[in-house]
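Record type: monomer structure entry
Structure origin: computed from sequence
Chain ID: A
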Amino acid sequence: MTQVVELPGIESIWTQTVGDPRICVALLDGTVDQSHPCFDGANLSRLPTLVSDDAGSGLMSGHGTHIASIIFGQQDSPVPGIAPGCRGLIVPVFSDSQRGKLSQMDLARAINQAVEAGAHVINISGGQLSQSGDADPILANAVQFCNDEGVLIVAAAGNDACDCLHVPAALPSVLAVGAMNAQGLPIDYSNWGKIYQHQGILAPGEKILGAEPGGGIVPRSGTSFATPIVSGIVALLLSIQLAQGEKPNPHAIREAILKTALPCNPEIVEDCRRFLAGSLNIPGAYTLITKGGLTEVSDQKSEEVVIQPSEAKDSTPEETDPINQIEPSEAIAPSLRESALQSSEIGIQAAETTNSESSISESSIPTTIQHSENPMSVTSNNVATSSNVVPSADCGCNGGTVASSVTPSNAPMSLVYALGTLGYDFGTEARRDSFKQLMPMVWSDNGLPATGRHATPKVSPDAIEVPANPYDARQMANYLENNIFEAASLIWTLNLELTPIYAIKPQAPLALAVYQFLQEFLAGQVLDKEDDNYIERISVPAYLTGETVTLFSGQVVPLIQPLNTRGMYGWKVNEKVCKVKTCFRQG
């Protein structure tokens, strides 16, 4: 069992400060049982979020309460925390009732809330498995907003036992946290993706003692519980900066922690990548900060980061039900590293691993599915989940055996009612060139088909036939009308202000009917804006699949799946306006 009082160097900092109340740490996690004795006297406040639950005995309440106690547990209590004098913001994002799922959009909203409420540090013990480290643009923008405002996000690296990444931990300016054991060695299940080599730190994450709802104390293991240790140290070092009369600079603290990290000893560890940038060195970071050797910190972006959300799960010692939502992210700890590398679900999950008393929940090995019939680069679990962020809780690791904890196959998928404009993407140059060869020639003076069913006369006598332009939506709509089966070879997107926010992939057996609707929507969108049949926007009710699609530009978007055409509409605003005018004239 590990208590924070055992951390090397922590006692010497406590002689100067146990945390300044002007320093604020926000916990984006499950609800917290603030009635626990360890929080008596703690300066905690809860922000209103989409999660309105009170703390209970569920998995997410246990996850949030434990993590809060690691930072804010009062020193004379059964669970002393690292920075008990700092102010705490409880920002519930993982719900017991939703089994720990959270969309990246909702996580981004919570991040913005925390920044606006005055947070200096944001602890996110959750994430979503990502092949490349890219995230939804909305989440990426929220993380960038934190960086611009001088707020540091500390996030779990994930418990997938692979050379792989989680978001938001892999995003630029974030400090990622992996887990090490009592001997200072990386725990087998702690992720070690390449980006983490530059912005990740190892911290104790094995059998960390903390509070549980109802007044108890339990040990928990995983990157979820290593993360608040680092957040607490950051808060203490910020308090030291204040005591020195300096302005708190969370990103300077991040730089100090990374620069003073204890490096891997290749004579002891076979694969030093597992050490990330190194292990937490509290005395070294303290010395560097007190000597004033660091000021501003630039983003450590030695890699071009492409963000694909991934999920992780969480479980408490008492329960075996898996949590697969990030909403909290499901902790996916695949037994095959190759599978984990390729798994890229849309969701943020808790990054915790079970202790020796925990039982392993049903496991699943994620696999990459390459759809031969279309260019979508889709990765998924064998379980369909929503676009979510899941707490990095118990990953199901017992006795060194890694098991993946995922959502049950009968868990309901999240619904989305998407409104926007329709677009399409090719994914690859080869796919784009294939369409260019298949589409009929067009006239150079009007771009309309010169041959085939939709052939039109040329306007100018000097017009010549030229190859089709697959990016011309008019030409694509005409081509698909006569070749609807080719619609499955495109990546259809739902756009908001020209920015793709979802990829659309219909589900059999009514996929063909959905593709016909999409073709009609596209044809309506390219009409003159004064035309009665002009379509201004469309609606697509669908399920969030928990998968992502990489577009030609490299952008990664969540995949939604309409099961039928019910609720799919093209909004012909001119037609509706004309009808209203007619009714008005008729009195």
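Annotation 1: Residues 116 and 149 are 10 Å apart (CA to CA).
Annotation 2: The radius of gyration is 26 Å.
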